[in-house]
Amino acid sequence: MLAAGLVLAAAVALSVSAFVVRARFLVALLRAAPAVDRSNHVPVRVRNEATIVLGQRKLLQRLGPGLAHAFIFWGFVVLLPTILIAMIGIVDKRSTLPWLGHQGWYALLDDVFAVLVLCGVLAALWIRKVQRPPRFEGSHLGEADLILALIATIATTLLLWHATRIALGLNEWPRQWSPVSNALSHLFARDSATRVLERAFVWTHVLTILAFLAYLPRSKHLHILTAVANVWFGATGPGGRLEPLRFDDPDVPEDQLRFGSGTIADLNFKEVLDTYSCTECGRCQDACPAFATGKLLSPKLVIMGLRDQLLAQDSAPLVPGAVPEDSVWDCVTCGACVQACPVSIEHVDQIIDLRRHLVMVDASFPAEAEPMLRDVERASNPWGKPQSERADWAAGLGVDVLEPGVPAPEYLYWVGCAPSFDERARTAAVSTAKLLKAAGVDFAILGPRESCTGDPARRIGNEYVFQAFAEQNVATLNAAGATKIVTGCPHCFNTLANEYPDFGGAYEVIHHSELLAELVRDGRLEPTSAGGRTITYHDSCYLARHNDVSASPRELVSAVGRPVEMARSGKSTFCCGAGGAHMWMEERGKPINAERVREAAATGADTLAVACPFCTVMLDDGVQTTGAELEVVDVATLLAEAIPDGSPPPVSESRG
Amino acid sequence: MVLVFIENPGDELSQQALVFARALGEEVQAVSIDAGYAPAAWASSIAEVISRRGPSAVIAPGTDRGNELLAHVAARLDLPMAANCTSVTPGDPATVTRVRWGGSLLEEALVHGSPLLLTAAPHAVAAEPVGVEISTLTPSLDGALGVIEHQRATVAGVSLADASVVVSGGRGVGSAEGFAPIEELAALLGAAVGCSRAVTSAGWRPHADQVGQTGTKISPEIYIACGISGATQHMAGAKGAKKILAINPDAEASIFASADYAVIGDLHQVVPAISEEIRKARAR
């Protein structure tokens, strides 16, 4: 008994010290990382722990693999006290944990969850060895096999230990509560061989756990500890907001100013924690439109590359050391990876930080994007059109252009550069203006005083230019006393609603589809449902995924035609290819827009409805490339077509 | 004392560097170098002058050579260098305003280090005569990496960016082979051949031929756009064209909004007809 106790103590000491040595290194890296403030929204963070960690919500986005993981995870949580019970059993085979060790219901839970864990392991092996989904491409497969083998050993030895104890009459709990162990106990006689086996099983069980503990911080399985923290510190607001860089903050000493991520020393606290939390499951890679169209980028390999360079303490530039340069530019910032990630890794923020360094420090970025950056700065729009022509689209529509010094009406209509200047995107602005007029909405545009929100500059990594525009636009909007802003561009929407608050601009921002749906609901616009069109609606990433607007555009689609859905819709939409400043970049590999158009055409629809000027241009190009029989139309235009021209429905007096 | 590197005595940009240097309010001395271009060897000789004369700042014109030379000097002395400055306020650190982003951004920066190493952005100050004697250095080029020979770039045909006539084809051309009449017309006019993004996406022509936002920006006397719808992305690259002749069968195509001359018709009929007329006219 004493000898067993001493051996166990030595094994525990060895395992714990091996764990602590590595854990101290990992914690030191975290402490050295630049801080990022994630102390707000505590109730949301608690809820995220409950749903994402305990409830396994994001894992269960894929039911099969999600359940396999949930069984193993829940089993791990339920079986934690058995570690203590087994250790007590090693020291004294006639003792157990007070109270809990005697409970029949806990023995039942042990049995049920040990079996569920084994089912989870078998399912995981089936997925990895038989199905072999491409999401594991580039992951450490051998490491995963070892981890699964360790888990299986732990669960199996638990069941066998319980079975031998029942056979020997050593069970402190009523045996009828353990259906599985009890059934297995019939394999063992009440003899000395079983007594040896009982010792062997409990030792194997405990030593495997101790070996696992020592191995854990040296493996990707570290996520079982770090994921809890990573979910806690995950972004709580809308997914489209980027952390601003603090150029002008007097509290930040000059030598601590960050210009994105150049070396491992630049990775902030959350970015370091992200790399500790990745277990290489590849769900991000599977969701990534760039990866799906044969580009170099895999969000998983970005995180793995950063992790490997961080842990190697290699201070070489992160690009191309950890991440190839092409990968950095392939990203369309659609956020599909972030949404798919079960442990709240923020791939897009990591990639944007790499871009920021490349653009602002190294001045190294795709040459074809340079005219966009120059034109945004010089002309306040990405195509270098004269600002004086910004309101030309509204000629003859009787739209009020807000003059300086005049207070904003109920709604400020923020048109956006593409609907102002691009001939294909303009139609939606014209339709929106006509509809708002017909419904008697009090609105005005800024005309030449509206400028680019800075979104394309920010997404390509030029935070300087973005912040200059953010400050300028916030000043204009605040001076006009704007409170409610309606916009047709999801990228403007995201910037105005989610990013300008960081620069002193707080507005109620709604998308034109939301306002138009409300007007239809209130009877202020009454479409005569011609019903001729079969319409599939393409969700814009910046509207549906980043800002959760997907019901309103569908209301409009249903009001004017017969809706059909694509498989990838709502928050699980598939990018058009324009996000992340790709509207102004050349695409490598297969075009994303063509891929999406083929999906839309497969629904049998004749109309591809959109609610974003960039989706309009990209998908219209895709239709022409693929020769699909589809008309790309903004939801506002679909609605305008269904309203009898020139005769707006009367607004009843009671509805002031 | 401020040391100014004169690239070519009497040239405008070197004069501007001298005027720029006066802003530091100190005596100005000038050096030029009489040897074949060898940046490392030149820098070594400038560094030697710095250690001998102890200037508080070294200014060079913001030319390719001025920037490269001073970068070498900076690396040699382990000092920071600010390129393309439009103004400087002395101090420790000195404050400079400099041009970044190809002229799109003016950055205010603090420059530490002594001597201060700056190049003067071209045309930030007006050139005027500055009465300074120029001492000439003759560094030894033994074993130095230098320029052996100058060779003028020979471009086959006419470069798209500089061409005074550009004939482009869009999706309406239909195929790579469909460019034959466009190439024929371009040859007759001494023009460069361009295309739209749809064409490069389809793989009919290389990206180097692409006119547009993400391709080449052109500024010809006349731009002949055949079978191009005129998307914003394309027209952003053609806005420098003085006149636009658009050929497109779709009368609603947005290119007609920016075109000075319009032919509504199929380019496969219109373009050969134009070529034919040119040949006839020349035969007369």
Question: TL;DR?
Answer:
The complex is a heterodimer of chains A (656) and B (284). With 656 residues, chain A is mainly alpha-helical.
Strand content of chain B: 25-35%
Low-pLDDT windows of residues of chain B: none
Oligomer: heterodimer
The amount of helix of chain A comes to 40-55%
Radius of gyration computed on alpha carbons of chain A: 29 Å
What structural class should be given to the helix and strand makeup of chain B?
alpha/beta
With helices defined by DSSP (H or I, 4 residues minimum), what is the helix count of chain B?
8
> How much beta of chain A, percentage-wise?
under 5%
User: Count of DSSP E strands of chain B?
Assistant: 13
Residue-averaged pLDDT of chain B = 91
List keywords for this structure.
heterodimer, A: 656 residues, mainly alpha, four-stranded parallel β-sheet, 28 helices, 54% helix, disordered C terminus, B: 284 residues, five-stranded parallel β-sheet
